[in-house]
Amino acid sequence: MIIANQQNINTKKHYSISNDISKISNIFNREINISIWKRNLNSNILHASEILLIKNSDLQFSELINKNFSIDFLIDKIGADEKLISFYEDIQYLTKLFCELFDIKDAWLRIDAIDKPMCPRFHADHLKCRLVTTYYGPGTQWLPNNLVNRNKLGHGNNGLADDISGLFSKKSDIENLDVGDIGLLKGEAWVNNEGLGLVHRSPHTDSNYKRLYVTIDFGDLYRRSIFNNNY
Ligand SMILES: [Fe+2]
């Protein structure tokens, strides 16, 4: 099933996908567990992402930041190359967008570069909501809620791989975020969303890949993570 590039909200299928940024607030609909704003990155940001991957292929940036932070902070922490400025400005924009959407003062920003594929299992996170976006490489994979057999998550897989455990019926059930897409992934800790957190995983491919991606979380998740590594 290919549902990318549609403009829709489908409460039965629990997802919202739109080219219209205002529709990202559909995440507040009780039935929705992923809200995607589809957007195209401009060439400056794409170029900046490539430069960053070349310069720092194992970048792992993680900071609690105020919603009005200056890009000087990123310049100081990551690098002063002027070709990176458009990337920093986009991060600044997304952080503010996330904080204003949820009316919070700070957020946990992570910027990660990897130069080898990860192969995690499908899972739902115990958090309220996470913004995920990929600047380079394959994007996050997710399963529409109506196509998931949640009994097969975690120990329910009986030691079987996700593609044969019965977690989903067929490979084409798996959806992918594209480069530039802004995904709001609702988790198990969102009020009244227990048992409905978005089921997702890092990109899973047969070949090596490089990837640059960003996640933005509620600041309280960062504060809890200092004392508890279960997130
Ligand atoms: Fe996750």
H/E element sequence: EEEHEHHEEEHEEEEH
Low-confidence stretches: 1-6
Largest sheet properties? 8 strands, mixed
What is the count of β-strands? 11
| Widest sheet, order of strands | 1-2-3-9-6-11-5-4
Give me the secondary-structure topology.
Blueprint (H helix, E strand, L loop, with lengths): L7 E3 L4 E4 L15 E4 L5 H13 L4 E7 L4 H8 L6 H18 L3 E9 L14 E8 L4 E3 L18 H4 L9 E2 L5 E5 L12 E3 L9 E8 H9 L4
Parallel strand pairs: 2-3
Antiparallel strand pairs: 1-2, 3-9, 4-5, 5-11, 6-9, 6-11, 7-8, 7-10
Helix pairs in contact: 1-3
The structure holds fe (ii) ion.
Describe this structure in words.
With 231 residues, this protein is α+β, with helices and mostly antiparallel strands. It has helices at 43-55, 71-78, 85-102, 162-165, 219-227, and strands spanning 8-10, 15-18, 34-37, 60-66, 106-114, 129-136, 141-143, 175-176, 182-186, 199-201, 211-218. It has one domain (31-230): Jelly Rolls (Sandwich), CATH 2.60.120. The strands form two sheets. It has an eight-stranded mixed beta sheet. The protein has a three-stranded antiparallel beta sheet with strand order 8-7-10, with no helix packed on it. Helix 1 crosses helix 3. The two termini are 31 Å apart. Residues 1-6 have low confidence and may be disordered. The chain binds fe (ii) ion. Fe (ii) ion is lined by residues 123, 125, 200.
